[in-house]
Amino acid sequence: MRIPRPARAGALLGLAALLAACAPAQTDTPGSGADEMEGTLRVWLFSEVDQEPKEQVVDEAVAEFEADHEGVTVDVQYIPIDTRAERFQGAFNDPSSAPDVAEYGNTDLAGYVEAGGFADIGAELAEWEDHGDISDDVAATAQVDGGTYGVPWFLGVRALYYRTDVFDDLGIDIPETLEEVVEAGRAVREDDPDMLGISTGGAYTYGFLPFVWANGGDIAEADGESHTAAIDSEDAKAGLELYAEILSEDVCPPQTCAQMTGNESVQNFIAGEAAMTIGGNFNLNAVQDSDVAEDTAVVPLPGAEPDSIAPAFAGGNNLGVLAGTDHRTLSVEFVKLLSGKKYQQQMYEAMGNLPTLSSVQSDVAATDEEVAPFIETLDAGTRFVPVTGAWAGIDAEGVLPTMVQRVATGDASVDQAAQEAAASLDDAFTGE
Question: Where are the domains of the chain?
Answer without folding.
Answer: 39-156+314-383, 158-311+398-429
